[in-house]
Amino acid sequence: MQFKSILILSALQAALSTATVNGKKVNKPVEGWAKWESKGNLTGVGMGSYGEAVLENRCSYDIWAWSVDSVTGSTEAIQIPKRTTYREPVRKITLPDGNSAGVSVKISNTEMLQAKHHTQFEYTIKNDRLWYDLSFVDCALDKSSANCPGAEKGLKMDFSEKKCKIPYCPPGQYCPTQSYFVDTPVQKLGIPEPTFNCDDAGTSMNIYMHVCADEKPIKRSIAGRITMDEEQK
């Protein structure tokens, strides 16, 4: 399910606006996101009764995210301050030929998306089943994840549905059964691809993507798509 990381497919045609969280400005997603939420569907983009994709930045530093698919392209950089959470709707991507395609949420520790320096959370809805993975393909150096934002404190995906398998890479570890370190692990490493699914649980669950996963969870919600840590009050 790997996404080739020569970006960017085609940027959404909308300006970035800002919101204030804890006295500082943070980037909001482009207006294309509001368009998906209000209309429910664009050609090739299904919203349906799917859940939310929740990106939790437990790190002690800000990160930037890009939500990318092969139908709508990429959002602008979305700034996610330290100890905050960002939410967006899960979407099903269907190509013109009818085949399913995936969504890649790319993570950088700068506002520029640099080759070989970004972590990816990926998911696809196909045949009424949710498939997903962690990817270090665009940041790993051999067995090292040192260039992968958040990996030094662990990366994890979990779900509101208990049937979903949980990929987890411990802090700074080489974890090729939990995350892609190469694009074709069957051929290059002789192991199965680390792609997971939710079996027959459907597709309505929330997807939780944890950056710096071994740090303490974020507790307190505020209005909008941003969740702020209690300690930031």
UniProtKB/TrEMBL annotation:
<protein>
    <submittedName>
        <fullName>Uncharacterized protein</fullName>
    </submittedName>
</protein>
<dbReference type="Pfam" id="PF04681">
    <property type="entry name" value="Bys1"/>
</dbReference>
<feature type="signal peptide">
    <location>
        <begin position="1"/>
        <end position="23"/>
    </location>
</feature>
<dbReference type="InterPro" id="IPR037176">
    <property type="entry name" value="Osmotin/thaumatin-like_sf"/>
</dbReference>
<keyword id="KW-0732">Signal</keyword>
<dbReference type="InterPro" id="IPR006771">
    <property type="entry name" value="CetA-like"/>
</dbReference>
